Prior knowledge:
The complex is a heterodimer of chains A (153) and B (245).
Chain A: H1 3-33, H2 39-43, E1 53-59, E2 65-66, E3 72-78, E4 83-89, E5 101-108, E6 114-122, H3 130-152
Parallel strand pairs in A: 4-6
Antiparallel strand pairs in A: 1-3, 1-5, 2-3, 3-4, 5-6
Chain B: H1 2-8, H2 11-43, H3 57-84, H4 87-118, H5 127-148, H6 152-166, H7 169-179, H8 199-231, H9 236-244
Amino acid sequence: MKPRHQRMVAIGAGVALIAIAAALVLNAFQGNVVFFFSPSQIAAREAPQDKTFRVGGMVEKGSLKRQADGLTVTFIVTDTAKSIPVTYTGILPDLFKEGKGVVAQGKLGPDGAFHASEVLAKHDENYMPPEAAHALSKAEAEKAAKSVTGGAR
Amino acid sequence: MNSELFRLAAPQAFFPVAGKMLPWFSFLAGALALAGLYVAFFVAPTDATQGEAYRIIFIHVPAAWMSMFIYVMMAGWAGFGLAMNTRLSGMMSSALAPTGAMFTFIALWTGALWGKPTWGTYWAWDARMTSELVLLFLYLGFIALKGAIQDPARADRAGAILALVGVVNVPIIYFSVQWWNTLHQGASVSLTRAPSMAAVMLLGMLLMALAAWMYSIAVALARLRRIILERERDAEWAKLQRSTA
């Protein structure tokens, strides 16, 4: 082998070794790299019990309720399998909506509800003009209506 | 063919070639950016959920793509130079680094400005954002390390090792949104499936991405010519070049 081929092999091996090391480290960190826990993970007691953490999922449709003081809100975060009630006092981000993604930071209370100190909206990767979004929701509603009438028959 | 490539590997031979390519890439960068900005501001519709704030993608996404791709190119040239002992490769990696750092900064900065109105925060320590910040530090470290060593050959070798170690960060940035729960959304455009984005929006974004490519090539070539002249300052041809320029 020529010296430059030897160096090439050495560099290739070096990069491969670093990649393996990084993969092992990241694998060991798996639990700590997670930005938020899903309601299912909380139900399985994978989330820290008396420390601050984040919960992420969808805001369940029809679950958003505003308290009498006008600032405190309660809603249910769901990952379709499990769900968890959340209470929060403060201003919600613009993109916060029922049926959309949300990440809330806070603690699990003794009542089983999640007391959030910060609420962030999690956006999905879909970009479309309003007309397309309107058409999409209309089509979905029609599909739902069809399946209901189909079930009644 | 092969001998022609080897001839171009000499800084003296590549200097005029880079000078000839420069205006073409500059022109393409300008033309594509104009077309892209026109589509971005006048043709692309408002997004259904984000409103006008989504228009950040026309600069944010191309900048983030370039930040990762330029790093891979930079590390590739640095590694090639380390193995082959070619002088031009080290200069090439030096020429790419500042542009890569700039795109990384743009990606982080525009992302923060977009994050406040949409997510409700400028910054969160999620995997995507943190690894992109590490990328910025890698670029800055690469530039600083090379600048701190006087002898160009030693600077190239030291820089190459840093660049090659850092290259593991690039797949981490790219796949972070798949591997972990992150605040950052997943990819809207990927090679493996149809884009989840309206066609006009995608067109504007791709035009801007192409403009960013052309800009990067043009700026890297211009910077490369300066680096060649600086390093070859004692060679006769470079002295001649400077006296005519």
